[in-house]
Amino acid sequence: MVQQIKEQAFCMSDPTVHDATPEQLDEDFCQKLASVQNILLSYVISLVRDVDTARDITQETNLALWRKRRSYSPAESFNSWALRFAHLQTLAALKSRRRDRLAFDQELMGQLASEAADVYGDLEDRVLKLRECLSRLPRHQHDIVLLRYHNESQLTAEVSPGANTIDFELTSS
């Protein structure tokens, strides 16, 4: 009964999911979950400083998110919602690892988590704004920026012959 009420509230809060089947809701959730994987992993790494541990915690976070998927409201930022789960999973993992030499206290973990959530919480919006800015650049500059952050070695062969540095090429136009 409680589950039905939660599902109805979930559907009513977003008119696009009102007529959605449970399979469609699960598919939409999976797409959102897949899109946030890099953010979750980066967030957890920033807290535990160990990639293997962070991967384990991220997997636990994914399980927790899946189990609680019906409690997610589309009116809420999915990134923020998922990051709260990652924070709780990280705290649980660190609590169980207290025997390790380095363990942060709860207060410090709270501060780190808050700062990381600020950074990663609006990442999606910042990426959209960056893409919009890049789309306004002339094609040549757009390509240089992409090459700079994807393949710098290829860049030197493609910029104009008079440009000695990437900075010169990016600021000269």
Please supply descriptive tags for the structure shown above.
RNA polymerase sigma factor, 173 residues, RNA_pol_sigma70_r2, single chain, RNA_pol_sigma_r2, 0% strand, disordered N terminus, mainly alpha, 2 domains, RNA_pol_sigma-70-like
Q: Residue-averaged pLDDT, rounded?
A: 76
Number of helices: 10
As a percent range, the share of helical residues equals over 70%
What letter string, H or E per element, gives the SSE order?
A: HHHHHHHHHH
Q: Structural class per helix/strand content?
A: mainly alpha
Number of domains: 2
Main sheet attributes: strand count, strand direction, barrel closure: none
> Overall 3D geometry?
globular
**Whole-angstrom Rg:** 21 Å
Q: How many distinct beta strands?
A: 0
Low-confidence stretches: 1-15
**What is the strand content?**
under 5%
How far apart, in Å, are the first and last alpha carbons? 64 Å
Keywords: Sigma factor, Transcription, Transcription regulation
Pfam families: Sigma70_r2
InterPro entries: RNA_pol_sigma-70-like, RNA_pol_sigma70_r2, RNA_pol_sigma_r2
GO biological process, one term: DNA-templated transcription initiation
